[in-house]
């Protein structure tokens, strides 16, 4: 949310579109790389749709060209896009990777989640303290 607020302060729609498109292209490419790695490491798992590997490899070639061209033509916008992505790393480590959190941290996370659900009118069924109250 803080990164979004900072981006909104920029005010230039063209720059905002460039931030988002760079982040999207980067995520799409990483997804395709993951698809190729899974096809290579686990060829026997069930896949509802299976395509020839030439299609994702061709996509990656075009993706690399577009990403390199973006980095060359607008390095600052791409750098800001990378910084925006990297703001999620501490959230991952605090929320997912850190398993043995103190109870006060878990209570804080639960209260923030409950507050966000009330703010956005979202109800997600889950067991625990919220249902008992």
From TrEMBL:
Keyword Transmembrane attributed: yes
Keywords of this entry: Membrane, Transmembrane, Transmembrane helix
Gene3D superfamilies in alphabetical order: Amino acid/polyamine transporter I (1.20.1740.10)
Membrane-spanning intervals of the chain: 16-39, 51-73, 79-98
GO molecular function: L-amino acid transmembrane transporter activity; neutral L-amino acid transmembrane transporter activity
One GO biological process term: D-alanine transmembrane transport
Protein name: AAA1 protein
